């Protein structure tokens, strides 16, 4: 699995007539690859909620989203598996097939919800408008293939 995390002051995702919004916390763009399984889901969820990327009183990265009682907005983003090495059109052949990816994505969201943090989501396979108010900005990339 691949995830891009952005520390935010607030964020929204809009799709159809639905608007989901969070305050201070993390926006997590996540993609499922062909090789991913439950161990990747568990590792990624635990890593995200425990990453110390929020500042303490001294300005040092020392607090997690759990520590600050932050919120998480999860957005499915298969394009994180876009390979742009050859040609001008990304190759998405490393991304998991949509039906399997959706099951794993939903399981990932459920895994995050096991932690004491508010989790909101976009909608899988939906065209979404994401508005992010970066905090920092702080943006990190996680890939379970390198765990």
Which helices and strands occur, and which strands form pairs?
Blueprint: E1 2-15, E2 18-22, E3 25-31, H1 38-50, E4 54-55, E5 61-63, E6 71-76, H2 98-112, E7 118-121, E8 129-143
Parallel strand pairs: 3-6, 6-7
Antiparallel strand pairs: 1-2, 1-3, 1-8, 4-5
How much helical structure, as a percent, in the residues? 10-25%
Total beta strands: 8
Count every helix, treating DSSP H or I runs of 4 or more residues as helices: 2
Radius of gyration: 15 Å
CATH superfamily heading: D-tyrosyl-tRNA(Tyr) deacylase
**Structural domains: how many:** 1
Which structural class do you get from the secondary structure elements? alpha/beta
Straight-line distance between termini = 10 Å
Give unreliable regions as ranges. none
Strand content: 35-45%
Q: Any guess at the CATH architecture? A: 3-Layer(bba) Sandwich
Mean pLDDT: 97
Order of helices and strands: EEEHEEEHEE
- The CATH topology is given as D-tyrosyl-trna(Tyr) Deacylase, Chain: A
Could you give a short account of the major beta sheet? 6 strands, mixed
> What is the CATH class?
Alpha Beta
**Shape verdict:** globular
List keywords for this structure.
D-tyrosyl-trna(Tyr) Deacylase, Chain: A; alpha/beta; two-stranded antiparallel sheet; 147 residues; 2 helices; 38% strand; globular
């Amino acid at each position: 699995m691949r995830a891009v995390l952005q520390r935010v002051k607030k964020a929204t995702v809009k799709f159809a007539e639905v608007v989901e919004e969070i305050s201070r916390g993390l926006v997590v763009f996540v993609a499922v690859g062909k090789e991913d399984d439950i161990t990747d889901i568990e590792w990624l969820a635990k890593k995200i909620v425990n990453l110390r990327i929020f500042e303490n009183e001294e300005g040092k990265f020392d607090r997690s989203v759990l520590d600050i009682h932050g919120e998480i907005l999860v957005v499915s983003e298969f394009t994180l598996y876009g390979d742009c090495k050859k040609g001008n059109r990304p190759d998405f052949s490393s991304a998991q097939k949509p039906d399997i990816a959706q099951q794993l994505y939903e399981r990932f969201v459920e895994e995050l919800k096991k932690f004491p943090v508010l989790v909101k989501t976009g909608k899988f396979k939906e065209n979404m408008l994401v508005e992010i108010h970066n905090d920092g900005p702080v943006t990190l990339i996680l890939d379970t293939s390198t765990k």
